[in-house]
Amino acid sequence: MSARARLALALLWLGVLAGLTAVAAAGLRVGGDLRLFMPSAQTEEQRLLLEQLGEGPASRLLLVALGDAPPERLAQLSQGLVAALADSEAFVFVGNGEHSADAIDDTLLPYRYLLSPTLDSGRLDAPTLRQALRTRLRDLASPAAALVEPWVARDPTLETVRLAEAWTPAAEPGRRYGVWFDRAGEQALLLAHTHAAGFDPQGQQVALDALRAAFAAQDPGAATLTVSGPGAFSVRLRGDTQREAAWLGAGATLALVLLLALAYRRPSAPMLAVLPLASAVLAGLAAVAAGFGEVHGITVAFGCTLVGVAQDYPVHLFSHQRAGVSPWHSVRAIWPTLATGVVSTCIAYLAFLGSGVTGLMQLAVFTVTGLAVAALATRALLPALIDPAPRDVSAQPWVGRLARLLDRARLPYWPFALLAVLATGFVLSSSRPFWENNLGALTPVPAELVERDTQLRAELGAPDVRHLLVIEADTVQAVLERQEALIPRLDAHIARDQLADYDLAARYLPSAARQRARQAALPGREALAQALQEAGAGLPFRSGVFAPFLEEVEAARTLAPLTPQTLAGTPLQARIDSLLLTGGPRPAGLVTLTGVADAAVLRALAAAAGDDVHALDLKAASESLVADYRGRVLWALALAALALAATVRIALRSTPRALRVLAPVALSTVLVVALLHGGGAALNLFHLVALILGAGLGLDYALFFEHAGHDRSTALRTLHAVVVCSASTLIVFCLLAASSIPVLHAIGTTVALAVVLNFVLAALIARRSLAA
Question: Which is nearest to 633 in space by CA: 438, 371, 344, 353?
């Protein structure tokens, strides 16, 4: 085939890939819910964690601070934000303390005696009413007269005010100019409750964009907007990852192009090498989309990283090609070794199919499909594009010098065994934690921002994002009744300074049974009128002034109890929806907590309250979840390792040959773990993924070194190929190791160490000496 025909075929292949990319970009649905990468629950606490993770009210709160302007101006900006976002679809509510009593609107006002606890222990009798009327007279003679006067005729006991006070958090911030401010009076504070879950970065991005746009529309001048909370952190994670991935990708691409051009001294090499890799990525995306309907963004990012090993396949073909030999003959010669490496690597990733985690299952499908397609493309299509008469890379002087150096460095096998024993002993005897169970340790959010979030949460009295009480029952009404029974115990803990505050649905919506009991305590119209007459005797209230009060109390005696459904469209809906969850198999009520002094006290409280009350420590539950999941993955990987070893043994048809291939991979893995542990790193899920990738690379190096045998020209070409493969991979993962994002840094560091150790150990153990 002429050079022009080869170029035309390559451009055709590239054009097909570009067309498929455009189709995929238009139709592919990329998800962002991080819960797809959470494992299945094994305990009741873990089940509750997964049900509430990202859905609870604490995780949906954005904490907002306005600063760097005079307090009066900050108050105006706060009021403007609340008004601008009142009808935003991104938020359930945005509050600044300006209208704390507005939750009791004209719709709910007739229900005030059903919602208020007054009638639980008192009565609307003559003594009670007389005390209330005397208090109203004092109010009317005070500076608060203008506020009280409109309510006296219809609500002489000011039940509306009592409800507003009962619904106000104990740790509510102070006010200036009618809105929340911090203690120093330098920042206006707001709470924004988003519709999107806390771990939905796309939904949170929409909310943050709406918030920032509303702030900018206020003409803030030099004033600043600070937003914190789980949702803001998840958006930052995604943004930082995208930014770093962009420059890392650009740097890696440029470095690989230069490396391949230098290694093969022809400009076509970089273009041809990318064709199998691009085919792998598109095939992986198509397979995941077909199997799952949606591809998670992390699957795309990690999948592209993991199938990067496919870059090695055309490199092996390029390095083994020489003048006078058809590219088809060259690819047939290396195919058994290449195919063994591909199958073995795929076996390792197939272990993730048994993890029960949707995200990792997607990653397995993506990687296995991509690697298989890249290998087949290298075998069936790439030889047609290669120059059949290239220069022999084994003739390059540096290849021969490196081969002689490696020959002189050869050692007997026992030092390697001793090194494995020492590394294993170091890890087992170390007092440092081996595994990282804290998911928070992977956050890329700087420590100062986490500290800022803690400060804002304390200023606003926002609920703790760690501790929750969860109450489950067969019906919503049963949940509310269980919560009502729990309130006295929670109040007792507050009195003992074991808790600062709590919030639960029954605080706003009593059970239907409690509402009916309060209705029964309301006096009839005649009895109430008689009590009012006795109470007002000698007081300067004109006759008939309390007619509205009589009418509304009489109406309240026949009202149907309020339910979550009848609250739709009222100001209470947002609060109830966030605290009373009906989407699961059983209704559940959340009790959010502030200022938890001792988690053991909460566990004891839940145990005493009954089987359906659970004290949920999100941190402890997440750590146990990670530990249980990791155990399952490690067992799956152990089985995969056995299958991989069997595959290599069958392919090589010799136990000694198989051991020469597997030994450097195993030793390299042990040494990487020891080096990471010695450097202070506790291993996490991402280290495991990186170790599998490193083992796959090492297996590829060892297989090709072993395949070359003692034939000098073949061995030199193999050495050239493995050096180029190692160098290209090392460049990419050293760039990742330089990332400020913990996930990328962990993967980059792990694979970079694995590449160096796998190359050295495979060259010393699996490679045959050319001097032999």
Answer: 353
